[in-house]
Design a protein that fits this description.
It contains six helices and 20 strands. The model has no long low-confidence stretch (mean pLDDT about 95). The protein has three domains: about 70 residues, Uridine Diphospho-n-acetylenolpyruvylglucosamine Reductase, domain 2 (2-Layer Sandwich); about 140 residues, 2-Layer Sandwich (Uridine Diphospho-n-acetylenolpyruvylglucosamine Reductase, domain 3); about 110 residues, UDP-N-acetylenolpyruvoylglucosamine reductase, C-terminal domain (Uridine Diphospho-n-acetylenolpyruvylglucosamine Reductase, domain 1), CATH 3.90.78.10. A hairpin with a 2-residue loop joins strand 8 and strand 9. The longest helix has 18 residues. It has a five-stranded antiparallel β-sheet with strand order 6-7-12-10-11, with no helix packed on it. The chain has a four-stranded mixed β-sheet with strand order 1-2-5-3, with helices on one face. The protein is globular. The chain is α+β, with helices and mostly antiparallel strands. Helix content is about 25%, strand content about 25%. Bound molecules: flavin-adenine dinucleotide (FAD). The site of flavin-adenine dinucleotide has 32 residues, from strand 3, strand 8, strand 12 and strand 13.
Length: about 325
């Protein structure tokens, strides 16, 4: 097999994932522009191999050495047209949030400080502090690696849901650009409890969000982690009412007359797992949803998290679902 000049083989992914898992991929390619995309397309179609597209690796759990090609998306670009901005997938998310505020374009301030790239933001519909990125996406531009064609997905076609979108199950779609529709008028979104009080500008909200995040979350550059390890489960009314009898202090958010969202952190803490560890992995004592990992291998974090899943199911009859993407 002939490797294009800028491809690497037997490549360690340790510096490409925030859990610092040290697994290798058969092949690795940086994608910095359209020319690289063309080369990647030819290589995949000639060799019929598996691919994984990654951004900054802050939402990835790599389970073993990867038999195929890892494509690191570095596509840059930032174009403003009135209140629309079209951004390259490889731009850093938080730098883009900061730039939009400098341009007096509002909406993304509650999503300040989320690690990762712009291209990954639609994948799991990133969200925090009462906002979701889907509220601000006009369209997403992709290259379909099966046929090399560019496709545009409108907001509706992205099929956004809580921590999900159509892209989660379509690994052949490489997101190249995301177009955001922002507002020229600042309308504060302070529904979230910890954002109440005197926040008179988007900059104030950004500062408050960054402060809370620095207090509650672990810095992944120092302690390897992927942010929340589980999604907040959504349960039906019958189970919710049963749980309220046993746990009158149950925390919840009512979605509609039938469905309730329960904070996974509350369940994990209530079941006594906060601050526990297993070998080189464990759960933060500051935030029960943050699982850290000091090993180069995935085993300890998988063992610990699956014990948590079983315990929550036994105690509350609730199934927890992982938030990061597992690749193997
Ligand atoms: C400390 C910490 C805090 C966090 N806080 C939050 C939070 O508040 N809210 C939240 O929603 N998330 C949070 N996260 C998770 C993470 O920041 C987001 O999921 C982010 O969008 C991941 O970006 P990334 O570039 O690192 O993606 P990666 O981890 O590289 O990839 C994630 C997924 O996206 C896919 N992907 C990436 N780029 C592309 C592309 N261009 N085309 C197609 N597929 C692609 C990958 O294949 C993978 O499935 C946090 C993570 C950490 C470490």
């Amino acid at each position: 097999m002939k490797l294009p000049r800028n491809f690497k083989n037997n490549f360690s992914l340790k510096n490409n994932n925030s859990l610092k898992l040290d697994y290798k991929s058969d092949f690795y390619a940086d994608c910095n522009g359209l020319e690289d995309l063309g080369q990647i397309y030819d290589f995949i179609n000639e060799n019929k191999i598996n691919i994984w597209v990654i951004g900054e690796g802050t939402n990835l759990v790599i389970k073993n050495d990867l038999k195929g090609l890892v494509i690191k998306n570095n596509l840059k670009g930032f174009k403003v047209n009135k209140n629309f901005i079209n951004v390259g997938a490889g731009e850093n998310w938080d730098s883009v949030v900061s730039k939009t505020l400098e341009l007096n374009l509002y909406g993304l301030e509650n999503l300040s400080g989320i690690p990762g790239s712009v291209g990954a933001a639609p994948i799991q519909n990133i969200g925090a502090y009462g906002a979701e990125v889907s509220d601000f996406i006009s369209y997403v531009e992709v290259i379909n690696i099966k046929n090399g064609c560019t496709e545009i997905f409108s907001n509706e076609e992205c099929k956004f849901i809580y921590r999900g979108s159509i892209f989660k199950n379509e690994p052949h779609l490489i997101i190249t650009n995301v177009c955001f529709c922002l507002s020229k008028e600042f309308k504060p979104n302070t529904h979230y409890e910890s954002l109440s009080g005197q926040l008179s500008s988007a900059e104030d909200i950004r500062k408050r969000v960054l402060l809370i995040r620095s207090e509650k979350l672990l810095d992944y550059l120092e302690i390897p982690n992927v942010g929340s390890f589980f999604q907040n489960p959504i349960i039906e009314k019958k189970l919710f009412n049963d749980l309220l009898i046993d746990y009158p202090d149950l925390k919840y958010y009512q979605l509609n007359s039938e469905l309730y969202k329960i904070p996974a952190a509350w369940l994990i803490e209530k079941a006594g797992w906060k601050g526990t560890s297993n070998g080189d992995a464990g759960i933060s004592d500051k935030h029960a949803l943050i699982f850290y990992n000091h090993s180069k291998k995935v085993n300890d974090i998988l063992t610990h998290s699956s014990e948590v899943v079983k315990s929550i199911s036994d105690k509350f009859k609730i199934t927890l679902h992982y938030e990061p993407t597992f690749i193997s």
